[in-house]
Amino acid sequence: MPIAAADGDTLAVAAAPTATPAPGAALNRFVETVTETFAHLRIGLAIYDSERRLTLANPAVAELFGADPAWFAARPTLRETLDRLREARQLPEQANYPAWRAQLFTLFDDVARASYEERWELPDGRSIHVLGRPHALGGIAFIFEDVTEAIAMQRWRSTAVEVRRATLDALADGVVVLGPDGQTRMANPAFVTLWRLGERFDDAPRHVSDIAAACRALIGDDPLWTRICGAVSGVGGRAPWSGRVSLANGRALMARIAPMP
Questions:
Q1: What is the tens place of the pLDDT at every residue in 25-55?
Q2: Domains contained in the chain, number
Q3: pLDDT tens column, 1-19
Q4: 90 and 203 housed in the same domain
Q5: What is the C-alpha separation between 69 and 72, in angstroms, rounded?
Q6: Are residue 135 and residue 14 in the same domain, yes or no?
Q7: What is the pTM of this model?
Q8: Which of 146, 170, 197 is the last residue of a domain?
Q9: Which residues on adjacent β-strands are paired with residue 134?
């Protein structure tokens, strides 16, 4: 039976007749709750009973997969659903589709322990995060979420970090980035060489106090690292600073401390 949502969409619900009123009442309460919760969300919800037949699907399912909501209202089986989505190229490409589909069917062998989570990479370039869990009235509830934009943003951030790292690595000036916890976030090769910290320095986070201790012999009495420690902890304020630093070996450096946004 289709239930109209407030915005004109249709929440496709198909419930088999029950012999006793108690289960029917429970199902009605469940449907009402799901209708209110999921009818307006863009996250898709599809619930299949223990016979692998659809009992409920919200409008987002049809929208995500470009399907006719009325088709879901006809209570297709999971096999019929998957086959139809495959024909419409709305499933990830599989080298052995029958075996992949059969693996999904095994979730219903013990619905109480059913657990499924996978990211479907669709032929159209979208990424759909799929979660399958048992639901209170038997069967399995599948949740579908389009995570394409989130994945793209994650990849963009990863690329940005790689580009920033490559840029810093190419600098002749030594650069170290310290987090508010005092741990190193990044240190370029020039920094490691300048302070004679060893080739494997940036393999793991180091605390600014440990770096200061390692540099003590080279820095002598100059308060540079005391100033840096204070800037990280906030004791010395977060105003930018720059100045000339004299090393114990007679060399001189220009140093700059700048807070990051």
A1: 665 665 666 656 666 677 899 999 999 999 9
A2: 2
A3: 333 343 444 344 444 444 4
A4: no
A5: 5
A6: yes
A7: 0.61
A8: 146
A9: 140
